[in-house]
Amino acid sequence: MRRRSLAVLAAASLLVGGLAACGSDDSSSEASDTLKIGVSPVPHGEILKYVADNLAAAEGLKLEIVEFNDYIQPNVALSEKQIDANYFQHIPYLEEEVAAKGYTFTALKPVHIEPLGVYSKTVKAIADVPAGGVVAIPNDPSNSGRALSLLAKNGLLTLKDGVGVKATEKDITANPKNLQFKALEAAQLPRSLEDTAISVINGNYAIETGLKPSTDALALETGDDNPYANLVVVRTGDESDARIVKLEKLLHSAEVKKFIEDKYQGSVLAAF
Fold first, then answer.
1. What pTM was estimated for this model as a whole?
2. Residue 132's Cα: distance from chain center in Å?
3. Which residues contact 202 (CB under 8 A, 6 or more apart)?
4. Residue 191: per-residue pLDDT
5. Letter string b/e over residues 119-149, b meaning 16 or more CB atoms within 10 A of that residue's CB
């Protein structure tokens, strides 16, 4: 997977929400008034750009949007205070990151759900997945268990009772088609379609590569009781930062909900 250095990302970040070049006399004040937030480009970056272009000025909020193309660096950048917040992850993933790396982060309110989907370039229906077919799934534990659970719900395998989205390959009790699992970094999953029977792809990466989850997925998660809503995460103690409070208000507005519904047509679901 292609990764950019944080220095390159910062240089390439999209400065929006009315932030303009200013003289040296007030540059420090300008920086302190601006909320710098790390995102996955789609849909998070698109949602924030809508907020910046249409809603932020009325609240006196300035946003600097920094795009990341993986799931690791946004939390590193937040921990190292290179950004003020990030918006790319769900709580199960955040909990894994905190347990593994000791981050002191706080998750705010759910914003949207990107349903995980099953995709293929050769198979037209779940029932037609061939015996011995290669199945690509995400390699991070929260999303790999989520993928196995989706496959089980669609009849391709059976899991131990009660494991649900915490499943691992060791929890598979029946694999009637003798499917071969290949765990990949989430960003690589769309490219894996060239070499797999099916691939289970996170919604943001599916959309980025031109797939439309609501129509192209052979199977798709629903939004009902879905614990995988994406949300803003901050360093613990920053929840009351006035800029964060303003952003949360705007991200949970009727205008943003309508933007999500109109733009993504069921491929991204508002979670509020």
1. 0.81
2. 30
3. 114, 116, 138, 143, 186, 189
4. 96
5. bbeebeebeebeeebebbbbebbbbbbbbbb
